[in-house]
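User: I'm putting together a small comparison set for a docking exercise, and I want a reference complex before I start. The sequence is below, and the ligand is nicotinamide-adenine-dinucleotide. Could you produce the 3D structure with the ligand included, as structure tokens?
Assistant: Of course. I'll restate your input first, then give the structure tokens for the complex.
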Amino acid sequence: MKTPDGLRSLRVGLGDRAYPIHVGPGVLSRADLLADCLPGGDVLLVSNETVAPLYLETARATLAGRRVETLVLPDGEAYKTLESFGRVLDALASGRFHRDCCVAALGGGVIGDLAGFAAASYQRGVALLQLPTTLLAQVDSSVGGKTAVNHPVGKNLIGAFHQPVAVLADTDTLATLPAREYAAGLAEVIKYGLILDADFLAWLERHMPALLARAPGPVAEAIARSCDLKARVVAEDEREHGRRALLNLGHTFGHAIEALAGYGEWLHGEAVAVGMVMAAETSHRLGWIAAADLARVRSLVSAAGLPVAAPDFAPEAMLTAMGMDKKVIGGRLRLVLLRTLGDAVVSADVPRELLLGVLSDVRRAS
Ligand code: NAD
Ligand code: GLY
């Protein structure tokens, strides 16, 4: 899986829409990795004002040989809007891009989701190239084809499934990522171990100091293993009719924390970290995982520099906010829980009082 130059390559097996994910140092400069992936037309390279000064010229050079136009948007979740989506579509239409064009998303999950949704919509769908530059985007949002923008009523309410033609996850770009953003990405890495792979979880426990130090080998290994786990789930259940929901461990709790704290206060990965602790606590109180396993979850999350307790929100308010989750069916909350470490299930059967107890106890003292 790994070549001497540190490149790790894998594939998302979706038949005639299968695509490669390349992980490693310097892959953003590797035009050769795109030779068989891109259509022949023009490229719109979309980035933001933080990432563009760092990596736009590298990406542009890699795409050379075709017309490459750029669109640099303001930075932040606050700009993951229909208005920004309109700006990408305007750039495509006024630039007279045709159906054989490609939208390349250079940045974190905000740019990837937004540019991805524009690629899904322009002329009913054009090619999308994901060039993720945050850890979260490299292990999660660039893979699997979920694209979206936010609506004032809720996050990611408007979007589409649209798989990329390739993902280039250049691990060198992580060197400039702020520590808080990096830790937030580690939450999603831990998630894969918890839901799908006890061996990977144990590997993460052993390698967390190296991952925090951003040691190139372990970082690339963690990203490639995370992508591989996600790719398998996506290949099995692309549209989230079943197993893909497991990828949302900690997210129902986490989205409620994000909403109650006010969007932007908590990073998504930070809220998911606490959400995973809440899911583990719930699983323990249901008699599924042992106290020692719960302690392992807490300690790994904490070792990654992530929070393990929510702010002092009223449990009832948390429960109401959790009711906005996309997994709610027929008014019933469905939670991703842990049968054992490395084996998750979706459950709609958690007693309300038990859940309120967890929400009350996994809180910081105010
Ligand atoms: P982000 O895109 O906002 O990036 C975080 C910050 O890091 C931004 O300020 C960005 O400009 C900056 N940045 C990016 N790369 C950098 C680099 N290499 N060096 C320095 N700074 C850099 O946030 P994110 O955590 O990458 O993504 C969060 C978004 O992803 C949310 O909108 C969430 O809904 C979405 N998401 C989508 C999926 C999916 O499956 N599509 C999955 C998880 C999350
Ligand atoms: N981030 C969850 C998913 O892609 O399904």
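The chain has two domains: 8-176, 179-361. The chain has a mean pLDDT of 95.
User: Thanks, that's exactly what I needed.
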